[in-house]
Amino acid sequence: MTTTLYGLKNCDTCRKATKWLDRFGVPHAFVDYRQDKPSPETLVEWADKAGGFDALVNKSSTTWRQLPDNRKAPGSQAEWKLLLREHPQLIRRPVVVMADGGFSQGFSDNGFKKLFA
């Protein structure tokens, strides 16, 4: 098994993360979650590992800011799953799922060095 990087193919941060993995020879697969939306079960798993749905979402994104106020405060897990299935670009990216079950969000050179040491 390899590391799986979930993100958007046109996202600069996802491209940087992919280039980093290529440069350091880390075998990986890339999944564009706009085209291949994560299942509701996967979203719950990611939220659990990230520390909740609030931590999973990039609240500084343009998409988040453009949401109506009533959509910005999902009151249940079902509402969060619906929101993230409708707008997968709200998920802070990239999401890195390692073969051993490790999980990470976002990209930084130092963060990836620690993650893949």
UniProtKB/TrEMBL annotation:
Pfam families: ArsC. It comes from the Bacteria. PROSITE patterns: ARSC. Belongs to the ArsC family. This is Arsenate reductase.
